[in-house]
Design goal:
The protein is mainly beta. It has two helices and twelve strands; from the N terminus they run βαβββββββββββα.
Protein backbone atom coordinates (compact mmCIF):
# COMPACT_ATOMS: atom_id res chain seq x y z
CA UNK A 1 0.00 0.00 0.00
CA UNK A 2 2.85 2.40 0.71
CA UNK A 3 3.97 2.19 -2.93
CA UNK A 4 0.67 3.62 -4.14
CA UNK A 5 -0.57 7.10 -3.61
CA UNK A 6 -3.92 8.49 -4.55
CA UNK A 7 -4.07 11.67 -6.49
CA UNK A 8 -5.58 13.27 -3.38
CA UNK A 9 -2.02 13.36 -2.05
CA UNK A 10 -0.20 13.65 -5.36
CA UNK A 11 -2.18 16.38 -7.07
CA UNK A 12 -4.34 19.08 -5.67
CA UNK A 13 -8.00 18.42 -6.44
CA UNK A 14 -8.70 21.98 -7.40
CA UNK A 15 -6.58 24.24 -9.54
CA UNK A 16 -7.59 27.80 -10.40
CA UNK A 17 -7.06 27.33 -14.14
CA UNK A 18 -8.69 23.94 -14.68
CA UNK A 19 -11.22 23.51 -11.88
CA UNK A 20 -11.58 20.08 -10.33
CA UNK A 21 -9.14 17.35 -11.34
CA UNK A 22 -9.84 13.64 -11.73
CA UNK A 23 -8.69 11.27 -9.01
CA UNK A 24 -5.96 8.87 -10.10
CA UNK A 25 -3.67 6.35 -8.44
CA UNK A 26 0.04 6.64 -9.18
CA UNK A 27 2.85 4.23 -8.42
CA UNK A 28 5.84 5.59 -6.52
CA UNK A 29 9.34 4.13 -6.75
CA UNK A 30 9.93 0.97 -4.69
CA UNK A 31 10.64 1.81 -1.08
CA UNK A 32 9.17 5.33 -1.30
CA UNK A 33 7.51 6.54 1.90
CA UNK A 34 5.82 9.65 3.24
CA UNK A 35 5.28 11.43 -0.10
CA UNK A 36 4.16 15.02 -0.43
CA UNK A 37 3.07 16.80 -3.58
CA UNK A 38 2.43 20.41 -4.55
CA UNK A 39 0.84 21.58 -7.79
CA UNK A 40 2.02 24.95 -9.09
CA UNK A 41 -0.07 27.48 -11.04
CA UNK A 42 1.00 25.93 -14.36
CA UNK A 43 -0.28 22.48 -13.38
CA UNK A 44 3.18 20.99 -12.77
CA UNK A 45 3.25 18.52 -9.90
CA UNK A 46 6.29 18.72 -7.60
CA UNK A 47 6.77 15.58 -5.52
CA UNK A 48 9.10 14.74 -2.60
CA UNK A 49 9.41 11.48 -0.68
CA UNK A 50 11.73 9.60 1.62
CA UNK A 51 13.42 6.40 0.53
CA UNK A 52 15.56 3.91 2.43
CA UNK A 53 15.80 2.88 6.08
CA UNK A 54 13.44 5.19 8.05
CA UNK A 55 16.05 6.05 10.70
CA UNK A 56 18.59 7.13 8.05
CA UNK A 57 16.98 7.69 4.65
CA UNK A 58 17.27 9.99 1.66
CA UNK A 59 14.97 12.70 0.27
CA UNK A 60 14.00 12.55 -3.40
CA UNK A 61 12.32 15.10 -5.67
CA UNK A 62 10.57 14.71 -9.02
CA UNK A 63 8.74 17.14 -11.26
CA UNK A 64 5.76 16.02 -13.36
CA UNK A 65 4.97 18.79 -15.90
CA UNK A 66 1.25 19.11 -16.45
CA UNK A 67 0.70 16.24 -14.01
CA UNK A 68 1.97 13.72 -16.58
CA UNK A 69 3.10 10.28 -15.46
CA UNK A 70 6.52 10.65 -17.06
CA UNK A 71 8.37 13.55 -15.55
CA UNK A 72 11.94 14.41 -14.75
CA UNK A 73 14.20 11.71 -13.36
CA UNK A 74 14.06 11.61 -9.53
CA UNK A 75 16.83 13.70 -7.94
CA UNK A 76 18.26 13.12 -4.47
CA UNK A 77 17.84 16.31 -2.43
CA UNK A 78 20.24 15.53 0.42
CA UNK A 79 23.95 15.42 -0.44
CA UNK A 80 24.89 13.19 2.50
CA UNK A 81 23.44 9.66 2.20
CA UNK A 82 21.09 8.65 5.01
CA UNK A 83 20.80 12.18 6.39
CA UNK A 84 16.99 12.26 6.67
CA UNK A 85 14.77 10.65 9.29
CA UNK A 86 11.23 9.34 8.90
CA UNK A 87 10.35 7.58 12.16
CA UNK A 88 8.38 8.46 15.25
CA UNK A 89 6.48 11.72 14.97
CA UNK A 90 8.67 12.89 12.07
CA UNK A 91 6.60 12.75 8.91
CA UNK A 92 8.63 13.24 5.77
CA UNK A 93 10.06 16.19 3.95
CA UNK A 94 8.10 19.41 3.50
CA UNK A 95 7.90 21.04 0.09
CA UNK A 96 7.11 24.55 -1.14
CA UNK A 97 7.27 25.85 -4.70
CA UNK A 98 8.45 29.41 -5.10
CA UNK A 99 8.96 31.87 -7.89
CA UNK A 100 9.74 30.35 -11.30
CA UNK A 101 8.83 26.86 -10.08
CA UNK A 102 11.84 26.58 -7.76
CA UNK A 103 11.33 23.79 -5.20
CA UNK A 104 12.27 24.41 -1.56
CA UNK A 105 12.57 21.36 0.71
CA UNK A 106 12.90 21.09 4.51
CA UNK A 107 13.45 17.83 6.40
CA UNK A 108 14.47 16.56 9.81
CA UNK A 109 18.02 15.28 9.85
CA UNK A 110 19.22 11.92 11.12
CA UNK A 111 22.34 11.24 13.17
CA UNK A 112 24.23 11.02 9.85
CA UNK A 113 23.19 14.51 8.72
CA UNK A 114 25.67 17.22 7.79
CA UNK A 115 26.21 19.95 8.79
CA UNK A 116 26.17 18.74 12.38
CA UNK A 117 24.38 20.93 14.91
CA UNK A 118 26.04 22.01 18.15
CA UNK A 119 23.34 20.11 20.04
CA UNK A 120 20.22 18.14 19.12
CA UNK A 121 19.00 17.09 15.70
CA UNK A 122 19.30 19.28 12.62
CA UNK A 123 16.46 20.73 10.55
CA UNK A 124 17.82 20.81 7.02
CA UNK A 125 16.89 22.99 4.04
CA UNK A 126 17.79 22.95 0.36
CA UNK A 127 16.39 24.43 -2.80
CA UNK A 128 16.53 23.53 -6.46
CA UNK A 129 19.50 25.22 -8.13
CA UNK A 130 19.26 27.65 -11.06
CA UNK A 131 19.65 24.84 -13.61
CA UNK A 132 16.62 23.04 -12.14
CA UNK A 133 18.45 19.70 -12.25
CA UNK A 134 20.09 19.47 -8.81
CA UNK A 135 19.75 20.80 -5.28
CA UNK A 136 22.04 23.24 -3.53
CA UNK A 137 24.04 21.95 -0.52
CA UNK A 138 21.76 21.60 2.49
CA UNK A 139 21.87 24.04 5.39
CA UNK A 140 20.98 23.42 9.02
CA UNK A 141 18.23 25.87 10.01
CA UNK A 142 18.71 25.26 13.74
CA UNK A 143 21.65 27.36 14.80
CA UNK A 144 22.73 27.14 18.40
CA UNK A 145 25.94 28.77 19.47
CA UNK A 146 27.97 27.69 22.44
CA UNK A 147 27.77 30.42 25.02
CA UNK A 148 30.67 31.41 27.18
CA UNK A 149 30.08 31.98 30.83
CA UNK A 150 30.64 35.63 31.43
CA UNK A 151 31.51 37.11 34.77
CA UNK A 152 30.27 40.60 35.58
CA UNK A 153 32.75 43.41 35.49
CA UNK A 154 34.06 44.50 38.89
CA UNK A 155 31.95 47.70 39.01
CA UNK A 156 28.79 45.71 38.22
CA UNK A 157 29.57 43.31 41.09
CA UNK A 158 29.83 46.19 43.56
CA UNK A 159 26.57 47.84 42.51
CA UNK A 160 24.68 44.57 42.22
CA UNK A 161 23.72 45.11 38.60
Amino acid sequence: MKRYLSLLSLLSLFTPSTGFAAVEVRRLPDGAMQPLAVTDDGGTVHLVWLQGEPKACDVFYQKLPGGRTNGTAPVRVNRHPGSAIGIGTIRGAQLAVGRNGRAHVVWNGSSQAEPKPVAGAPLLYSRLDDSGTAFEPEQNLIIKKKTQKQTPRSEERRVGV
